[in-house]
Write a structure and sequence with these properties.
The complex is a heterodimer. By secondary structure, chain A is of the alpha/beta class. Chain A has a domain of about 200 residues: Thiamin diphosphate (ThDP)-binding fold, Pyr/PP domains (Rossmann fold), CATH 3.40.50.970. In chain A, about 30% of the residues lie in helices and about 20% in strands. In chain A, the strands form three sheets. In chain A, strands 2-1-3-4-8-7-13-9 form an eight-stranded mixed sheet, sandwiched between helices. A three-stranded antiparallel sheet of chain A has the order 10-11-12. In chain A, α1 crosses α6 and α3 packs across α4. The longest helix of chain A has 15 residues. The N and C termini of chain A lie far apart (about 75 Å). The relative contact order of chain A is 0.11. Chain B is globular. Chain B is of the alpha/beta class. Chain B folds into three domains: about 220 residues, Pyruvate-ferredoxin oxidoreductase, PFOR, domain III (Pyruvate-ferredoxin Oxidoreductase, domain 3, 3-Layer(aba) Sandwich); about 190 residues, 3-Layer(aba) Sandwich (Rossmann fold); about 110 residues, Rossmann fold. The relative contact order of chain B is 0.09. The chains are: A alpha/beta, B alpha/beta. At the A-B interface, β1, β2, α2, α4 and α10 of A face α1, β9, α10, α12 and α13 of B. β14 of chain A pairs antiparallel with β9 of chain B.
Chain lengths: ~350, ~625
């Protein structure tokens, strides 16, 4: 590349020492976000990182951009306020499975519904790390933790399903240790206008180590995940010999070359399809029945809240004779004392 | 019913300084509009006005029952400061309206009845046991104007061939025309209103105009039998006037603050009685560039406002008591991050859902102390419907200039009450000066403070070279980096408290009204001003030595508070709660002793009960 790059990833690093546990997945996410921002050539002064509470939310302090470390669960509401008031800013919201889906669930779904132009990076480690090991709303049924010594008796949320249920326009999934995929997905999220939800399968080395290992380990990941790319057939496996087909209304894993199945028979990923039915199927695929979907699962253009707010103001202002407070106060039912 | 109208005498004119009229009928009778139109005409004529709507909490209560009665009281004349304890003239469109309001009548007052609705069925629905409600409610001795309003309304529009429903909907105009006659008021202002309002529907416009005129003419024709009133105009300053209620006034004060600070106004809010009108008014103000975010809940309302404030807007949230409770944690964040934020809390009866449509002053302690940690915020209170405008403006000014959250307390009584309001001149309100940074780029210290206000600099995203991180964690006193250091925390807690106390140097001193050498000092705050003032004024006229100190700035208290309280032998703190401000004064100025007068009935004080109480205290 011959272009002069004004910013490199170092320009997005703050002077503070990063204090996450050694081996925590958060380090990789931080580095890849910084790398994505540099590759996007964002200006640090125009980036606002808003976080809630939890290990992930310390992220803000490690960025050299503007940052606001807020309160538990309310990050998406505060980020919405920032973006609606200042649509010129690039607003990134860093959150976790507890912050976004438990205490902040209401704000999360409504932010997604409104499609405010935010990048929401959801660190999903299926545990409360900062409070030292209680189950979270994404912990699997039966999960044993400090607050569920006999296993949980509740069903988890699946972030993709929740996002699409809230009429989300963008959903992607990546894994903390897949650095290139993280950078690609974060860049796609930033380029998308609207609420981009990126679920990062993140490892908590202390309280929930290896929770995603069954799918993310180098040895199995090619057979247990599928990287979805828009316009490309859904192929996966170490030997690129497996794929996804639709049988009736359900997805089915097939072996290429068996029973006459060829590549042309496989589903082709359409991330831009308005109908979310297929995206929901893909986002909710779970190992071992299915490979876990990675990459941009859904990316559909739609009405964007902050853009429509600006448009409505412009339209009203063009047609209104009220240009100042005095215009407002002196019109209508008034009388004069002379 | 016995006819008490006596024919043949010439009309008597009663001269008064002020008078209270109450329009009362079924929810669907248009009484709120009738009252509003009457108050506008009175204000245009030059009277002071104070109004109070009293409508049912149910949207559609059963017709003809007491639960469905909707009333609107207008107090007008010279020196009016409350909507009036009692009603001089009652318009009762049906028996339920009479039943509901009879106890508020001033002895010897005038009652206008629509006799057509006083049939057996109507009387039964209203709970009258006999066919003679006047005797049953002991209303003999009042001036009764028994007008066949329904019949005459039908009669006056019969040529228009309207459907029955449209005809009946215009009978409020008959009552209004008649009341205009009673007070020698021209109907021109209301005629102009009708022409604008129904311009697109000529038949309805014509009907309303005819009925209004018919009501007025009816008064003229029966003048022999009834007195009419001459109410003194007040001497108002030159200028442009309009009527304004407290919620609109608060919304408008914020609009002026936006203009005077050069910052866009952002409101994050969730509908809640009785504060919703602020949200609605500002949502309509896209012409002035206001961004209104109707949030998913009260928490998101304040959080979006904080986000907007962080990014450089005038961030505001509006709510009532239960909503303020939900916003608690987020307000603490604004305290900690030291961001400007205005919270308008329109108080209502509590706790919990309480009495949503009734007034109370019981959120004071919540506003002062309802947060975790040492979490000082500025607390102010408006005291009349129209000064909600002034205090909303100053709440924003203080928040922006001192980098601190401000809670402005109003209440249901102020929010729904109207007064005439003079549109301020350009110079009536000061410019708001923002604490923009003078620090150099690349070395920005977010928690470096100014010497006079102890506020920090306001740097907003987009300013290259000033990138920094703030948040809810305790931070180093200078660099703003996270700090868990004990002595630093102590310092920061003290600094935030001192920053609050510095605000007192920038607000007016407390003034006393009434007898300068009084024995009894009445102390009040917020929405009770009108009633306290009227009671003190009345007692002063009777030669009683009593004065009033009314607080608009509560945290911090005005600098001269102690000096002023110390001048009086006896202090009585009057509040629509169980003594919250009295408790706060005891905490801040324990050297004085405070008597209390408290009421929690969802209603304002009455001037009468205040007078009685003060006399009792003075004679004790």
């Amino acid at each position: 590349m011959s272009e002069v790059q004004e910013y490199t990833f170092v320009d997005f690093k703050s002077a503070l020492n990063v204090r996450w546990c050694p081996g925590c997945g958060d380090h990789a996410i931080l580095n890849t976000v910084q790398k994505a921002m540099a590759e996007l050539q964002l200006k640090p002064e125009e980036v606002v990182v808003v976080s809630g509470i939890g290990c992930s939310s310390r992220f803000t302090y490690y960025m050299s951009t503007f940052g606001f470390h807020t309160i538990h669960g309310r990050g998406s509401a505060i980020a919405s306020g920032v973006k609606v008031a200042r649509p010129d800013l690039k607003v990134w919201h860093i959150t976790g499975d507890g912050d976004a889906l438990a205490i902040g669930g209401n704000h999360f779904i409504h932010t997604v519904r409104r499609n405010v132009d935010l990048n929401i990076i959801l660190f999903n480690n299926q545990i409360y790390g900062l409070t030292k090991g209680q189950y979270s709303p994404t912990s699997k049924h039966g999960f044993v933790s400090k607050s569920s010594p006999f296993g949980t008796v509740e069903q988890p949320f699946r972030p993709g399903e929740l996002t699409l249920g809230a009429r989300g326009h963008f959903f992607a999934r990546t894994v903390d240790r897949e650095l290139k995929l993280c950078v690609d997905v974060f860049k796609a999220a930033d380029r998308f206008e609207g609420t981009s939800v990126v679920e990062v399968l993140q490892n908590c080395v202390i309280f929930n180590d290896k929770t995603h290992q069954a799918i993310t380990d180098k040895e199995f990941k090619d057979d247990r995940t599928i990287l979805l790319e828009h316009g490309k057939p859904m192929i996966f496996g170490k030997n690129r010999d497996k794929g996804l087909m639709l049988e009736g209304l359900t997805l089915k894993v097939v072996q290429l070359g068996v029973n006459g199945v060829e590549e042309k028979d496989l589903l082709v990923h359409d991330a831009e399809c308005t109908d979310s039915t297929m995206h929901l199927k893909l986002a909710t695929m779970e190992y071992p029945e299915f490979p876990v979907a990675l990459g941009v699962i859904r990316s559909v253009k739609g009405a964007v809240y902050n853009r429509d707010v600006e448009a409505q103001i412009q339209e009203v202002q063009q047609n209104s004779s009220v240009k100042s407070f005095r215009d407002l106060a002196t019109r209508g039912n008034v009388w004069e004392v002379k | 019913m016995k006819d008490q109208n006596v024919m043949g005498k010439s009309s008597k004119v009663i001269e008064v300084d002020k008078i209270a009229v109450r329009f009362s009928g079924d929810s669907g009778d248009g009484m709120q509009l009738t009252g509003t139109l009457f108050s506008q005409t009175s204000a245009v004529y030059g009277n002071d006005i104070s109004t109070f709507p009293d409508f049912p909490a149910d949207i559609r209560a059963p017709q003809g029952t007491i639960g469905g009665v909707s009333g609107f009281q207008v107090h007008f004349g010279r020196g009016v400061s409350t909507p009036g304890d009692q009603t001089d003239v009652l318009v009762a469109m049906n028996p339920a309206a009479l039943k509901a309001n009879a106890r508020f009548m001033k002895p010897g007052g005038t009652i206008v009845l629509d006799v057509d609705s006083f049939d057996r069925k109507g009387l039964e629905k209203a709970g009258y046991k006999t066919d003679d409600p006047i005797t049953e409610d002991q209303l003999d001795g009042y001036n009764l104007i028994k007008a066949p309003i329904t019949t005459l309304t039908k009669e006056s529009v019969k040529e228009l061939e309207l459907d029955n429903k449209s005809v009946l909907r215009s009978k409020n105009m008959f009552a209004l025309g008649l009341v205009y006659w009673l007070f020698n008021r021209p109907i021109a202002h209301t005629q102009a209103y009708i022409k604008t309002k129904f311009g697109k529907n000529p038949a309805i416009m014509q009907a309303n105009l005819l009925v209004l005129q018919a009501g007025f003419d009816y008064g003229n024709n029966i003048q022999a039998m009834t007195p009419s009133y001459h109410v003194s105009p007040s001497e108002n300053r030159k200028g442009i006037y309009r009527n304004l209620n407290g919620n609109t006034a608060a919304a408008w004060g914020l609009l002026l603050a936006s203009e005077k600070s050069g910052l866009p106004l952002f409101l994050g809010s969730y509908p809640i009685t009785p504060a919703t009108e602020i949200l609605q008014e500002l949502a309509a103000r896209k012409d002035l560039g206001v961004k209104v975010f109707q949030a998913e809940d009260e928490i998101a309302g304040v959080c979006t406002a904080i986000g907007a404030s962080y990014s450089g807007a005038l961030g505001v949230t509006s709510t009532s008591g239960p909503g303020l409770a939900l916003k608690t944690e987020a307000i603490g964040l604004a305290v900690m991050a030291e961001l400007p934020l205005v919270v308008v809390n329109v108080q209502r009866g509590g706790p919990s859902t309480g009495l949503p449509t009734k007034t109370e002053q019981s959120d004071l302690l919540q506003a002062l102390f309802g947060r975790n940690g040492e979490s000082p915020v500025v607390v102010m209170a408006a005291s009349t419907p129209v000064n909600c405008f002034d205090y909303a403006f100053y709440a924003a000014k203080i928040a922006l200039e001192h980098m601190i959250p401000v809670i402005l307390l109003t209440d249901g009584f102020l929010a729904n009450g109207t007064q005439q309001w003079r549109v301020p001149d350009e110079g009536d309100f000061p410019v708001i000066e923002l604490p923009r940074t003078r620090q150099k780029t690349g070395e920005f210290k977010p928690y470096l403070r100014s010497e006079d206000k102890l506020n920090r600099d306001w740097v907003v995203p987009g300013m290259k070279g000033y990138e920094h991180r703030i948040g809810g964690l305790e931070k180093d006193a200078v660099t703003g980096n996270i700090s868990h250091d004990g002595p630093n925390h102590h310092l920061m807690v003290s600094l935030r408290q001192q920053k609050l106390e510095r605000v007192a140097h920038f607000v007016p001193e407390l003034e006393v009204v009434g007898d300068a050498s009084a024995d009894l000092l009445v102390v009040g705050w917020g929405g009770t001003f009108g009633h306290l003032y009227a009671a003190v004024e009345a007692l002063n006229k009777e030669g009683r030595k009593v004065a009033l100190a009314h607080f608009n700035y509560i945290n911090p208290l005005p600098l001269n508070t102690a000096e002023l309280l110390g001048r009086y032998k006896k202090i009585v703190v009057c509040e629509l709660n169980m003594g919250q401000f009295a408790g706060f004064l005891r905490m801040k100025h324990p050297q004085f002793s405070y008597e209390q007068f408290n009421k929690v009935q969802g209603q304002p004080f009455t001037v009468q009960e205040l007078k009685e109480q003060f006399v009792k205290l003075m004679e004790a």
